[in-house]
Specification:
two-stranded antiparallel sheet; globular; alpha/beta
């Protein structure tokens, strides 16, 4: 059985490894907290990563507008990838209407996760980002 893993990583990693570690989410990130609570409640993930990638875009420092989520859940069994993405988007519809501009989704079953490298690559920089 997989252990539940939650982590908050520095946005400056070139790639994100999947070491199992538990951290307490930072309280001053309300959008990230909302995303974490909703995905946890809806999917009971065995692994959940939430990366705030806003720093890679032309937004004020500390923004919560661009996220990547990695959700590993048995609730994705026998569900096509496109439908998994739709399910995540439905759960986060309020966040997408109220501040989240972009959401990158990795949605896997536990067996897919176990068979993978468990490394989430850093997203490419926005062409208009970094204060341009």
């Amino acid at each position: 059985m997989l252990a539940r893993t939650f982590r908050v990583l520095s946005p400056f990693h070139s790639s994100f490894s999947s070491r199992t570690m538990t951290t307490i989410p930072i309280q001053n990130n309300p959008m990230e907290m909302s995303i974490r609570v909703k995905l946890t409640n809806q999917f009971s993930p065995v692994h959940l990563d939430i990366f705030n990638e806003s720093y890679m875009h032309n937004v004020p420092k500390g923004s919560e507008t661009h996220f990547k989520v990695v959700v590993v859940s048995s609730k994705f069994e026998n569900t096509p990838l496109l439908q998994r993405h739709r399910l995540v988007n439905e759960v986060l519809c309020d966040e997408l209407k109220n501040g989240v501009h972009a959401l990158s989704i990795v949605a896997k079953t536990p067996s897919q996760w176990e068979g993978s490298s468990k490394v989430t690559e850093k997203s490419p920089a926005c062409k208009g980002g970094f204060g341009k």
